[in-house]
Amino acid sequence: MSVKVQTTDFDVGAEVAVMRLSSANIGALVSFVGQVRDFNDGDNVTSMFLEHYPGMTEKALSEIIAQAKAGWSIADATIIHRVGELKPQDQIVLVLVASVHRQDAFAACEFMMDQLKTNAPFWKKEQTQNGLRWVEAKASDEAARQRW
Amino acid sequence: MSVKVQTTDFDVGAEVAVMRLSSANIGALVSFVGQVRDFNDGDNVTSMFLEHYPGMTEKALSEIIAQAKAGWSIADATIIHRVGELKPQDQIVLVLVASVHRQDAFAACEFMMDQLKTNAPFWKKEQTQNGLRWVEAKASDEAARQRW
Amino acid sequence: MTNLIKVLYFARLKESLNYSTEDMDLPAGVKTIAQLKDHLAKRGEAWATLFNGQQSIRAAINHALVGNDAIIKSGDEVAFFPPVTGG
Amino acid sequence: MTNLIKVLYFARLKESLNYSTEDMDLPAGVKTIAQLKDHLAKRGEAWATLFNGQQSIRAAINHALVGNDAIIKSGDEVAFFPPVTGG
User: Fold this and answer.
1) Which terminal residue of chain A, N or C, has fewer Cβ atoms less than 10 Å from its own Cβ?
2) Can you give the pLDDT at residue D55?
3) Which chains touch D (3 or more CB pairs under 8 A)?
4) What's the Cα-to-Cα distance from A115 to each of A31, A112, B56, B79, C14, rounded to whole Å?
5) Could you tell me the residue ranges of all domains in chain D?
6) Which is nearest to B119 in space by CA: B139, B142, B97, B102?
């Protein structure tokens, strides 16, 4: 179980390999990779700054993993979330879950992403052709969290 | 959209990178990696041989991608399935889906795995401490397919 | 008039029959997968064990899964195999 | 007796207030997050805009999300921020 908040990029393949080779009982690994899009709410996005709350962020991400472990049979989980300046097509987040069976891995990974959208202290500021703006929280993300 | 049936290993990170960088409109990539376990139905597995039906396999995997495209809003999808001799902790299958939104990517990836378990012509023969045996199809996989 | 088809066997069928592929002139009266299974079942004990009333043997025609009622045409590639176990 | 706490502001709160962190002696009568919001709202126009009846401002005490009724104790780290947008 591992949580990282970092400005640097990450390597999905390396993270999958480390988790996979940690146990011969793991049959299924599900990963989610988020990428910065060049378009949001009708505007072109040229860059984005991700602010967070050091200390609370790590605690919130660890709590999300603990909830996933309580809800599903999972062998391991990793969250890596980038902060700072990001450009379109930069990777922004990785959620990786390993399990004996695929259903648990899929459900736990999607659950963790929904929690991450609404329960971890990150804020995004976008640079668009119309200037800088803070990204507002989405009602659809809150709805996604509440279905679990 | 790409389908590969191969004896060689694959690199999840490279596959994610190629798909991700193909479009700045992709926000979400979900991957499933299956790994050969060292234990099945109460026996230690020391190796496995994956037989398939050349020609039909590629057609069946392409059909699974077409069904996923019809059911969800996805930008791209890749299936790589290995065949031949595999050892515990070898990677066996990759299903990778890209979408603008995460819900479509998660659902389409899980759907494709469920289809792959029951609708593509692969057969597994395991070497265990008690000899060689063909792996029987699981009722739970058929049930998983039928929920979609 | 001949009705040449190709028949393929996979996995434990291939092993039990010691047979992976054959060219066959479709016998008179054999039009469907069910009828071809009945025909094959008469070839001997190993064949009978596999094809006599065996609902669990799957069939494909020209790379598409089909049911027992599917019609076989001249030139078709017919395959028989156990339930699949991919992924 | 003093009740020293630390208060942090994030994202557009930090920008609007031009303020990211402060040490504060909790005033008499301020026991809860709601009361601290009311207290901060009296500091001036930018503060009033953010904290007057602003249900959308989230609060945390010692790195845990809390509601308006949460009690603030001496030594606590209190944070105010907009709804989060991670992932």
Assistant:
1) C
2) 65
3) A
4) 15, 5, 41, 28, 50
5) 4-81
6) B142
Domains, in order of start, for chain A: 2-146 (3.90.1170.40)
Contacts of A51 (CB under 8 A, 6+ apart): A83, A122, A123, A124, A125, D10, D11
DSSP-derived 3-state class of residue A65: helix
Strands (E), chain C: 4-9, 21-25, 58-61, 64-66, 77-81
Q: How far is A53 from chain B (nearest CA, A)?
A: 24
Q: Which pLDDT value is given to residue C56?
A: 84
**pLDDT band at C55; cut points 50, 70, 90:** low
CA C72 to CA C33: how far, in whole Å?
7
Taking contacts as CB-CB distances below 8 angstroms, the residues of chain B near C84 are 117-123, 137
pLDDT: which is higher, A33 or D1: A33
Q: Which residues of A fall within a CB distance of 8 Å from D10?
A: 51, 53, 121, 123
Instruction: Give residue B59's Cα distance to chain centre.
Output: 14
pLDDT of D10-24, one tens digit each?
999 999 999 899 999
Residue D72, CA distances (Å) to C34, D8, D35 in order? 78, 14, 10
Q: Nearest-CA distance from A46 to chain D in Å?
A: 18
Residue type, D12: R
Give domain C4-81's CATH superfamily.
Beta-grasp domain (3.10.20.30)
A88 three-state secondary structure: coil
The answer to whether C86 contacts B134, with C-beta atoms less than 8 Å apart, is no
Q: What proportion of chain C, given as a percentage, has pLDDT over 90?
A: 87
CA contacts within 13 A on the Cβ side of D12: 20
